[in-house]
Structures are given as structure tokens and as C-alpha cells.
Amino acid sequence: MNAVIVYASKYGTVERFAGELKEAFGQGCETHNLRESKNVDISSFDVVFVGGSIYAGRIQNEVQQFCTRHQSELLEKHVGLFISCLYEGEDADRQLVASFPDWLFAHAFGTYIIGGEVRPAQLRLLDSILMKTFLHVREDIVKRRPEVLKAMVEDARQLV
Length: 160
Ligand SMILES: Cc1cc2nc3c(=O)[nH]c(=O)nc-3n(C[C@H](O)[C@H](O)[C@H](O)COP(=O)(O)O)c2cc1C
Fold this sequence. Notes:
The protein has 160 residues and is an alpha/beta fold. 41% of the residues lie in helices and 25% in strands. The strands form two sheets. Strands 1, 2, 3, 4, 5 and 6 form a six-stranded mixed β-sheet that branches. A two-stranded antiparallel sheet has the order 7-8. The longest helix is centred in the N-terminal third of the chain and has 13 residues, at 13-25. The protein is globular. The protein binds flavin mononucleotide. Residues 9-14, 53-57, 84-87, 95, 116-118, 123, 127, 130-131 line the site of flavin mononucleotide.
């Protein structure tokens, strides 16, 4: 089985999680950062994971555009969807559903909330203000969910 993890990441959290996933998959897994290049060839992969992080309730535009551009191809692949965010429970579930088009959500073999991290000292000014005002975050927050990354690998391995 081979897999590609296509993602967008603003401050590097999703990028780190994607790297951990790639390592867990071992050979045959690649990562692709949509912020570095919007062109990605997914034709040779059996499994495609697509995801990004949530800002003010929304996933990055790059992720939405990737899904729209690759609609027909994605519908022929095994697709897993994920988001990185700080919210948990129903709030996180709502963000997950809102992040992807209905046709892709219905097609996906799995949807995953992989946790999130934020370090206020690293944020650009506007993000820092938003963070303090709306999310009331002043300290570093690290919410890691290694069990979810493990489940992503196991679910994908069962497919092919
Ligand atoms: C300005 C700002 C707004 C955010 N808004 C949300 C939000 O609406 N919901 C949420 O669950 N997490 C929110 N987060 C948390 C991010 O989704 C989380 O930190 C994520 O892990 C960032 O990943 P990245 O560094 O790969 O972009 C926000 C973070 C920042 C800095």
C-alpha cells in the first residue's frame, strides 16, 4: 500500500503530525505541503489523507481548493480526512464536518481529529490578538492524540 498525506499548516503543527504519520507508515508514504506547492500528483497513491488546521472555525483555503480541483480523482481513491484544532468534542466535530465538501465526507473511509498545538509567543500579531481575544489563550497549549494517528495508519492498512 502507498499513501500520500496532503496538508496545509500555518505554524508547523500539522506538518509535524504529517511527519509522524509518514514515519508510522514507513516505506510508500509521502507528504505534500499545499503551502509549498498547489500542484500535487496523487494518481499513483492508493490512499490519500487530506487535512489542515482550523483558524476561526475554518480550514485553510488551500485544502478546500485541493478537494475541489481533485474531486473526480479523490472519488476513485481511499480517502481519509483530518483536522488539527484546539476544540474537542462536539465543537471539534462541527469543525470537521464544515471543513470538507459533503461528497468527500460521505466518501471518506475515516475522519479524524488529530489534536492541536499553539504557542502564543510564535504567533504573528493578528493571530496573537485573535487568540487572546476569542480563544483566551495566553499559555502554550499542546493537545496531542497519538492514538488517533495510530488509528489512521491501522485503518488505511486494512484497506489495501
Ligand atoms: C488565530 C488562531 C485561531 C484559531 N482558531 C481556532 C478555532 O476556531 N478552532 C479551533 O479548534 N482551533 C483554533 N486554533 C488552533 C489551531 O487550529 C491549532 O493551533 C492548530 O494545531 C494549528 O496548526 P498549524 O500550526 O499546522 O496551522 C486557532 C489558532 C490560532 C493561532
